[in-house]
From TrEMBL:
GO terms for molecular function: GTP binding; GTPase activity; guanosine tetraphosphate binding; metal ion binding; ribosome binding. Residues 200-367 form the Hflx-type G domain. Keywords: Cytoplasm, GTP-binding, Magnesium, Metal-binding, Nucleotide-binding. GTP binds at residues 206-213, 231-235, 253-256, 319-322, 345-347. This is GTPase HflX. Gene3D superfamilies: 6.10.250.2860, GTPase HflX, N-terminal domain (3.40.50.11060), P-loop containing nucleotide triphosphate hydrolases (3.40.50.300). It comes from Candidatus Palibaumannia cicadellinicola. Monomer. Associates with the 50S ribosomal subunit. GTPase that associates with the 50S ribosomal subunit and may have a role during protein synthesis or ribosome biogenesis. It is found in: Cytoplasm.
Length: 428
């Protein structure tokens, strides 16, 4: 099932990109679309563009444009037509009947890339879950040629379960199986998070192909795959690094975001989303040489808001300054002299020292020590702090109470206080 959206190099495609109303970024959107198709390993035969006020209910494009695309498909012997938009199942079915070849939309294209790039078991399960969720509304296309199966006895026989209903039931069963397996992996990941809860977690987030993996490799001396392609990284990578005055921190590289990312696709990557929501600090990596820099920053901020991670502290990392003319690394600060952005090149390493300095400033103020006095009945909390590896010092009083000094990032402390309301009573 994992390869149901695999395109591959043997596919030759006609691309369709329609401008709705006034789109000032038409060319940039088209360039990104071509990059997505190339990342999927598909050969581009022809590109059809056009403009409309609203999508057509039957073909998404107008009937004249649809016939034009059908003619290009025939003349170029194309095997697939790819739309840079979201299509309804009915529109995909109608277009396939007209074109006499496969048709996929933007979501299907992204899923194809994900299917090719998933490496870990967890990543493959998350991709398959996203594929099945997308495929569930499109099953009818695969069985439109079949008659209903019959069921019953003798003359009282009536219509039985159709092949379509059978497939839907099997698909739901497979989705439930995947969800159970992902849940087990999430529990294992949660145990790992508990063991490092007292250590600040810094996550690299940003638009796809902004240079997150290159920066991750430079900071951790790792060898995560990097390429000038969209969605090179799909599986979350985690490493420890040491920062002066802060100590060890956890650095994680995550899958890149993209505009118009479907909600069900975002929801399928719960492991990545949980890592983001649990982070101490987000490093929002941006391609400083990109013409659509503000739009892409807004796209990332929108996704972060959708997953309830928009309130986590962020530091902008303006990457790829080596592509700018005569631009030197620097730190931008706000009115309180706190760092808000760092300009650097992860490829050459220029400005990395400034990033480490900014990280140090952001994290030193974020990690705080708390002095608690736990009564004998609060043994469960004491055990929990041991699990978090957060205890710096403790001693037992004559009345059996335990005094301890713990060290935690502020956001994790506040999260713990919400879970354990009585904890506030024990602060000395």
């Amino acid at each position: 099932m994992l390869n149901c959206y695999y395109l591959g190099k043997h596919k030759q495609a006609i691309l369709v990109h329609i401008c709705f109303q006034k789109n000032h970024n038409f060319k940039d959107d088209l360039d990104e679309f071509e990059s997505l198709v190339c990342s999927a390993g598909v050969s581009i035969l022809n590109i059809v563009t056009g403009s409309r006020n609203t999508p057509n209910a039957k073909y998404f494009v107008g009937e004249g444009k649809a016939n034009e695309i059908a003619e290009k498909v025939k003349n170029n012997a194309a095997s697939i037509v790819i739309f840079n938009h979201s299509l309804s199942p009915a529109q995909e079915r109608n277009l396939e009947l007209l074109f006499e070849c496969s048709v996929i939309d933007r979501t299907g294209l992204i899923l194809s890339i994900f299917a090719q790039r998933a490496r870990t078991n967890e990543g493959k399960l998350q991709v398959e879950l996203a594929q099945l969720s997308h495929q569930s509304t499109r099953l009818v296309r695969g069985w439109k040629h079949l008659e209903r199966q019959k069921g019953g006895i003798g003359l009282l026989s009536g219509p039985g379960e159709t092949q379509l209903e059978t497939d839907r039931r099997l698909l739901r069963k497979r989705i439930n199986t995947i969800l159970l397996r992902i849940k087990k992996l999430e529990n294992r990941r949660e145990q790992g998070r508990l063991t490092r809860a007292s250590i600040p977690t810094v996550l690299l987030v940003g638009y796809t192909n902004a240079g997150k993996s290159t920066l991750f490799n430079y900071l951790t001396k790792a060898s995560v795959e990097t390429a000038d392609k969209l969605f090179t990284t799909l599986d979350t990578k985690i490493k420890n690094i040491n920062i002066k005055t802060v100590g060890n921190i956890v650095l994680a590289d995550t899958v890149g975001f993209i505009r118009d990312l479907p909600h069900h696709l975002v929801a399928s990557f719960q492991a990545t989303l949980k890592e983001i929501r649990q982070a101490t600090l987000l490093l929002h990596v941006v391609d400083a040489s990109d013409n659509c820099i503000n739009i892409k920053i807004s796209s990332v901020e929108k996704v972060l808001a959708e997953i309830n991670a928009n309130l986590i502290s962020k530091l902008l990392v303006m990457n790829k300054i080596d592509k700018l003319n005569n631009f030197t690394p620097r730190i931008d600060r706000n009115e309180f002299n706190n760092p808000v952005s760092v300009w650097l090149s992860a490829q050459s390493g220029h400005g990395i020292s400034l990033l480490l300095k900014a990280l140090e400033e952001c994290l030193v103020g974020d990690i705080t020590s708390y002095h608690l006095c736990l009564p004998p009945r609060a043994g469960r909390l004491l055990s929990y702090f041991y699990q978090l590896n957060a205890i710096e010092k403790y001693w037992i009083e004559t009345d059996g109470s335990v005094r301890l000094i713990i060290r935690l990032p502020k956001n994790k402390w506040f999260r713990l206080c919400k879970q354990e309301v009585e904890l506030l009573e024990y602060i000395v």
